[in-house]
Each structure stands twice: as structure tokens, then as C-alpha cells.
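Pasting as-is:
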Amino acid sequence: MYNVNCDVAIIGGGPAGLAAAIAAKKEGAEKVLVLERDNAPGGILQQCIHPGFGLTRFKAELTGPEYYGRFVDEAKEVGVEYMLDTMVLEVCNETNEVVCTSSRYGLTCVKAKSIVLAMGCRERTRAGIMVPGTRPAGVYTAGAAQRLVNRQNIMVGKKVVILGSGDIGMIMARRMTLEGAQVVMVVELMDYLAGLTRNRVQCLDDFGIPLKLAHTITRIEGNERVTGVWVAPVDDKKQPIADKAEFVECDTVLFSVGLLPENELTRKAGIAIDPVTNGPAVNQYMQTSAPSVFACGNVVHVNDLVDNVSEESERAGKYAARYAMGKLDGEKKIVKCVTGRNVRYLCPQTIEANEVDGKVTLYFRVLQPEENVRLVARCGDTQLAKCKEFRVNPGEMCHLTVATKDIDGDVTVDVVKED
């Protein structure tokens, strides 16, 4: 077995892994090693050739390759090292070892002082939501179709129906239209948008693509190739109303029905998983239940903007470096972050309230859309932070920043309806 030693080992070379690696080097870690299964860094952004990235971080509208390219350049400047074409098989948090297989070195053991999980997320598939019907050609996840069209120059269909109003699905509705296909409709189970409002405007409304809310696909028809789907409205329990179903001709179906954090390695390592996010539970340092293991980006919780991923990941890299250098120990006062009214989950899940002058940003999603609300963070009856919002939606992240000096107990976040 080939053996490698480093200070910080980072699993994943996408936007999360790159940001964490740069931050770890800047914090003083001597050897930072990124383990990436692809033959180049960049992750999912390699196939995201549309603009819209970096508006918050860089005050510029970049494509996915332009966005991650800036991090690749900076990683080179600060001396980040890579092992590409390397698949991680196991994380041993008790010994701080990462077992992987490399096309160059074969079976490899990476011994690190701290580890950062940055594996990203994957799409839910047709099997995951159990849509009945035949299994012909022409059924794809939206991300798979995006890779085929944008990276491999393979057109996946000519007449398309998309299930789910997630961001990738809406972006692919525009992409397929620009490539000459007819996008018949986008079908969404919920009675509200699953992705960003800006993507509905830019990708659907601007191209006249219909969005059917509170509808679903009940069956896929076709033998060798998709010939059509049955689309039906749903009732208030999200059950299809069968007698109102209509047949829609198409030759392609794209599924954009949600993303799942890629956490097989995390679970195998025995690290605590949040049951709502399906990612590791973390504190404000992005530290997991295994003290030497940190996590960031979509492997923790699925973000709406890559700028948020970069910010979280820099924090993970910074504190992973501090842990590797023995600067993150000490007595801990731990409080929980508790979901209140209309809050689905909070990240981080816990806060170490030791820092006198520290600040913690709480990221969360709401359960239901609401208008004219206040976001409130509190300890008991003491208000820590508040923010007024005209509209909140499950497809878009919310956040509040609180000062650790004000925290003397569990922190609860509520979405309060204004009169």
C-alpha cells in the first residue's frame, strides 16, 4: 500500500474542497492535500456553463468554469496539492486515515492530522420517487442531461417534459430550448417553486415555458423510447387526482426532484448525521461529531448558491488547519440550535459559545412560503438577531448572524408572521 502524510486531507475537489484547501493553507497548514475522483478539480461546476455564479462573492456574473477557475488559480498560488483520479473508499476518524484507490499509486493510505469532507451531493432518481411505467430510453436526471449536453456534446432529446422545479431542472429547460428542443412543460408536485425565483424568470418565463404547480407525472409511456407521460393535478395530500390526468407527448423526461448529500463515507465513519439535512451535524467551525473531521458545502446541507458553499468551506478549512496545528482545543460550552416556527433545519446544529468576540451565521430553510415576515434568533426571551423579509420560500436559503457573547443557552430561530 502506498502511504502519504499531510496536515489536512480534503475529500473532494469541487468548489467546497477548493475553498477549504485555500483557507487551510492561508491559516498555516503546511501540507494540504485534495483527493479528487475526477481527472481535474472543479466538481459539478465543470458542466455548469451558464452564467449566474459569483454575484455575491465576486460582484460579477460568472459561469461555473469561470467561478471555480479563480479558486484553482489561487490554490496553485498558495501551494495546494492534489491526488486526482483518486476514489476514497473509507475514512477512519479514530486514526485520521483516509483509504483510497488511485490510478497512479493503487491502494493508498493518506495519514492526516485533520480531514475535511467535501463530497458534494447527488440527484434523486426516478427510482427514488417511484414513478411507474416502462423503462425506455429518454429518461434522465437533469444533472446527467446537463453533463451530456454541456461536456459531451450529446443532445438527449427533442421534445421534453421536466418533473420538478429545482434549479438544475429550470436551467436545463432553458438549455434544451437554446439547443433547439421543445420543452413542453415543467411539472412541480408542490404548490410553490422548488428553486430560485430568478431561475424561474430567466429560464422559464423568458422562454414561455409553462410551469404546472401542484401536478405530477403519474406514468411514463414508451417501449424503446419515451412516447409520452401522464400528468395529473394533486390534492392537498399530494395524491394524484387520476380522473384529471392528461397524456402529454414527449420523447424525453428529465427529473429534477431534489439533491441528497453524498454521505456514504460519513455514515461508514460513524459520524453523527442530521436526520433532516441528511448531512453531518456540525458546529460553527464546521466540525463534526468526530473532532478531527470537518465538513462543508453540499455534503452538509444542500445550498442554493455556490457563494454560500465557498463561505462555509473557508470556515471548515480554516478550523481544520487550526485543529491540525493543535490550536482548537480547550473547554467547550456547547449549546443547541433549535428550529422554531416555519423553520425546517438549522446549520450549524450546535454552537461552541466560548468565543467572547465571535459571530456565528445560522443558515436555514423554511417549511412553507410566507410573505411579510421577520426572521428572529433568540435565547429564551432574549432576542439575538432579527431581519425583516418581504418573502421567504423553501427553495431559497435564509440566514441570521448572532454574537456568541450574547448566547447563554440554546438558540431558537423563528419565522414570525407580521400583522
